[in-house]
Amino acid sequence: MTQPDMSQLMRKAQEMQEQLKKVQQEILETVVQGEAGNGLVKITMTGGGEVTDTAIDPRVVDPDDVETLQDLITGAFNDAHRRIAEVSEQKLGPISGFGGGSLGSMF
């Protein structure tokens, strides 16, 4: 049995590390929009988890029913977070060799 070429292994590891950094940067630059209430509440979020915009349709602003609006905001945030997780999984899956796990939840 022959020994693997260490310089070749190191080169391959460095290439994979560079590829991983590039994909991680792409994820951070990704922008998604989460929605709730059929689009009545929308939250825009970066791949790094920063909320950059919130849009609330005036039809859901009811001073006598604040709970519904709160639920819609929470739902839109969770939807945006789920979308970022999906993007992360799609982009990192081919590099990591994990095609179907929940890698995105790590970000």
TrEMBL record:
Annotated GO MF terms: DNA binding
Which residue spans traverse the membrane? none
Cellular localization per UniProt = Cytoplasm, Nucleoid
Q: Does the keyword Disulfide bond apply?
A: no
Q: A Pfam family in this protein?
A: YbaB_DNA_bd
The principal location of this protein is cytoplasm
Q: Does the keyword Lipoprotein apply?
A: no
Arranged from A to Z, the UniProt key words for this protein are: Coiled coil, Cytoplasm, DNA-binding
Gene3D superfamilies, alphabetically?
Answer: Nucleoid-associated protein YbaB-like domain (3.30.1310.10)
GO cellular component terms, A-Z: bacterial nucleoid; cytosol
Which HAMAP family would you find in this protein's record?
A: DNA_YbaB_EbfC (MF_00274)
Q: What does this protein do?
A: Binds to DNA and alters its conformation. May be involved in regulation of gene expression, nucleoid organization and DNA protection.
In its UniProt entry, what is this protein called?
Answer: Nucleoid-associated protein FRX94_08890
